[in-house]
Amino acid sequence: MKYLITGISGFVGGHYLEYLALKRPGVKIVGIDLSRPDTSFLNKSFREKIKFHKGSLLDKKLITNVIKKTKPDYIINLASYSSVAYSWRHPAECFVNNTNIFLNLAEAVRNSKSKAKILSVGSSEEYGIVAPANIPLTEKSGLNPANPYAIARVAQENLSKIYSDGYRMPVICTRSFNHIGPRQKDIFVVSSFAKQIAEGKLLGRKKIICGNLGIIRDFIDVRDVVRSYDLLLRKGKPGEAYNVCSGEGHKLSEILAMLQKKAGTKLPVQIDRDLIRPVDNPEIVGSCKKLKRHVAFRKEYTLSRSLEDMLAHWEKRMR
Prior knowledge:
By secondary structure, the chain is an alpha/beta fold. The protein has two domains: 2-180 and 219-247 and 285-300, NAD(P)-binding Rossmann-like Domain (Rossmann fold), CATH 3.40.50; 189-215 and 249-284 and 307-318, UDP-galactose 4-epimerase, domain 1 (Alpha-Beta Complex). Helices cover 43% and strands 17% of the residues. The protein has helices spanning 11-23, 44-47, 60-70, 84-89, 91-111, 148-166, 189-202, 222-235, 252-263, 289-295, 303-318; strands at 2-6, 28-33, 50-54, 74-77, 117-123, 171-176, 178-180, 208-210, 216-217, 219-221, 241-244, 250-251, 269-271, 283-284. The strands form four sheets. It has a seven-stranded parallel β-sheet, with helices on both faces. A three-stranded mixed β-sheet has the order 12-9-14. A two-stranded parallel sheet has the order 7-10.
């Protein structure tokens, strides 16, 4: 069995490799990314099963050649600009990148007559601004993207459905809610909190800089995310979209308070207006009933465990 993972060097890609090494050690891995992945946390025998190709999915020739030569059974598309804040600063670049990399991938699979099953990873941002009466969000909820990143994700999902329905290619879509977990970059809010608190505890930082603490989000551990992705690749229904979420909503102020309590800190908070998005959804909470029903998904990581592991990661780096 062979996996092709695009964006293999990212946060989710690293955790997916860790999951496969633990649960499916006999598989072979092909990876594509702009930089070589850090595989130091994997055992040597599994690292040797990873064939890495450096490059961009905007390079049609590269992705076509990789698929023809490697003949993957499963493809998971993690390659994207995943920051909403970045998309506000670079809307055209984000849209072109995130839609065209999927289009190039789908075309390479179609033209090579590959039978590979594809997981097209999307985002809860596709739902846009939602009234409290419509929470929790289900897969039948309407899509109303409210930022450049979300518009690109909706376009990607629509393209996925075209290839699934029109070309009979086995493409499954996710609408993935906010990921958290160890090794996440500090450009994402919870990891930024954890890093700043660790700096306060170990390096003498005096305050925490943050944006809007009143918004509510559905946070799911990345280790549960990658397990759900593998279940979807194996058991998900082509042409369908699935929420990947915890089903629980938490205010950012609550998350920050939990982290401070776990670290034993009481750092004052300073709001930075530059960290507040031009348009932001006050509440995004999903329903994972469909994911549970179709692939028997059950999350294994509590929010408390995720936050503890994130703090431990940053404290270890600082020590």
